[in-house]
Design goal:
The complex is a heterodimer of chains A (166) and B (288). Chain A is built from nine helices and no strands. Chain A is mainly alpha-helical and 166 residues long. Chain A folds into two domains: 3-77, Rna Polymerase Sigma Factor, Chain: A (Orthogonal Bundle), CATH 1.10.1740; 86-165, Winged helix-like DNA-binding domain superfamily/Winged helix DNA-binding domain (Arc Repressor Mutant, subunit A), CATH 1.10.10. With 288 residues, chain B is an alpha+beta fold. Chain B folds into two domains: 43-189, 2-Layer Sandwich (Heat Shock Protein 90), CATH 3.30.565; 192-280, Heat-shock cognate protein, ATPase (Actin, Chain A, domain 4). Chain B has seven helices and eleven strands. In chain B, strands 1, 2, 3, 4, 5, 6, 7 and 8 form an eight-stranded mixed sheet that branches. A three-stranded antiparallel sheet of chain B has the order 9-10-11. Classes of the chains: A mainly alpha (166), B alpha+beta (288). Chains A and B meet through helix 1, helix 2, helix 3, helix 5 and helix 6 of A and helix 1 and helix 2 of B.
Chain lengths: 166, 288
């Protein structure tokens, strides 16, 4: 691929989707300052490894991938990545529904382990396709599906097959 | 779509975008972190745009260009410039220098190497001519092809001929090849032939990864594609990975530009400590 083309595409794509990247970063770190840092760091990484872009079509997913990785790295470095053990998962999934459904739902989403949260965000909030998500998290499509079901399960959301695939 | 998901989605999209985002993005985009310019066209060539300039220099053996002349048990194995060709037209230029090895008694080896050198440069020239033909009248090609060689190691035992091809079109590429010749036994040394078995691939790869990590940790600006977040991280060397042996008998593994690091890092070399591979080596003759 011609380099200056790649650079232009990259700049265009970043400019167009900067708000998406910010929201994505924010949903992991939950504060403005860190989210901005992650966006900045991700752009720098993207510029540095620009040579490895092979397909112009996939620039957007590639950038999502960098943001997700950078955010997870950030959490790890700052030890804010709480590993949820089975007990906690059990607790999450067994909780009764109460009348404060909205707050409950938001909390459940916040407490969702990163690997599940990532998939919910990319699939439903960013409207990415299953195979795009698979590429971003470097897993196969089946793993993405399994995690998506599990994530919905944890959020106590029931969906039809149709909803998931569309 | 499910009602709960809709709610979560709304919450997600309600995340406030701070005013600072524009600045942060603009700043990051303009920072060009530790990256060189992609492509520089020498102004001297621009000035010579319209002129077609052809010179062919054939240098006879023993001429001033002789690169190496080391007597080995009464025989002289040397590398000279067999042919040099320069041409400039349409904002484009080619400069290829073809080496030629002489003095080996193993004529088969000598001829096959020399023929390979000639053939590869001929191909570069043919390609260049073809490209020039496809240009419209007055159109600028902006192509530069340059190929040459140098002698990296020349000891009593070993001769290493390094050949490089640099091509710049819209982007630049650089390919390096090394031929390591055992002058005494008159054989071409390949990477697999140095080792008892295939274990070397893993051992060398692991050592390189460690060196990459160490360099990235201690030296600002060093970047290798190693982590999972890179599109195509370095996993292991090819079984016939480019390599050469230094005059100090050390093994060096070579990667072309872009292969394991961003372009600005150029061609990459790693010296493998002999201790790491010593029990895998067939013998200690070349590497110790």
């Amino acid at each position: 691929m011609k380099k200056h083309d790649a650079h232009q595409m990259l700049v265009a794509c970043i400019t167009e989707h900067k708000a998406d990247f910010y929201r994505l970063a924010f949903s992991y770190v939950k504060n403005q300052e860190d989210a901005l840092d992650i966006v900045q760091e991700s752009i720098k990484k993207a510029l540095i490894s620009m040579d490895s872009i092979k397909d112009i079509q996939s620039i957007k997913s590639w950038l999502y991938k960098i943001v997700v990785r950078t955010a997870i790295d950030f959490l790890r470095k700052h030890k804010r990545l709480t590993l949820v053990n089975d007990e906690a998962l059990e607790y999450l999934s067994s909780g009764r529904e109460d009348q404060y459904e909205d707050i409950d739902l938001k909390q459940a989403m916040d407490q969702l382990p990163v690997k599940y949260k990532t998939i919910i965000i990319l699939r439903f909030f960013e409207d990415l396709k299953m195979d795009e998500i698979a590429e971003i998290i470097e897993e196969n499509v089946n793993t993405v599906k399994t995690r998506l079901y599990r994530a919905l399960n944890l959020l106590r959301i029931t969906m039809t097959e149709e909803d998931l695939e569309q | 779509m499910n009602e709960k998901i809709e709610k979560l989605k709304k919450q997600y999209h309600d995340i406030l975008i701070p005013d600072e985002l524009d600045d942060v993005v603009a700043q990051a985009l303009s920072s060009h972190p530790r990256k060189k310019k992609f492509y520089i066209w020498p102004s001297a060539i621009a000035a010579a745009a319209a002129i077609i300039f052809i010179t062919t220099v054939n240098v006879s053996p023993g001429a001033a260009n002789a690169m190496a002349k080391i007597p080995v048990l009464g025989k002289v194995v040397e590398v000279i410039t067999f042919d040099e060709l320069k041409q400039e037209e349409n904002h484009s230029r080619i400069d290829v220098k073809t080496p030629s090895i002489s003095g080996l008694e193993n004529k088969g080896l000598q001829t096959s190497l020399n023929e390979k050198y000639i053939k590869e440069n001929e191909r570069l020239y043919e390609q260049f001519k073809k490209e020039m033909k496809t240009l419209q009248k007055g159109e600028k090609g902006n192509v530069a092809v340059s190929s040459g060689y140098d002698i990296i190691t020349d000891t009593d035992d070993l001769l290493v001929v390094h050949r490089y091809v640099e091509e710049s079109r819209a982007s630049t590429s650089s390919v390096n090849q090394y031929d390591t010749i055992d002058k005494k036994h008159e054989v071409l040394v390949t990477l697999p032939s140095l080792f008892k078995d295939k274990r070397y691939i893993k051992v060398i790869s692991e050592n390189i990864k460690q060196q990459m990590k160490d360099q990235m940790k201690h030296e600002e600006g060093k970047i290798y594609w190693l982590t999972e977040e890179d599109m195509d991280p370095f996993k292991e060397i090819a079984d016939n990975q480019s390599f050469y042996i230094t005059k100090d008998h050390k093994l060096r593994i070579v990667f072309d530009k872009y292969k394991v690091a961003p372009g600005y890092m150029g061609n990459i070399e790693f010296e493998i400590p002999t201790g790491v591979i010593s029990n895998l080596l067939v013998g200690k003759r070349y590497i110790h």
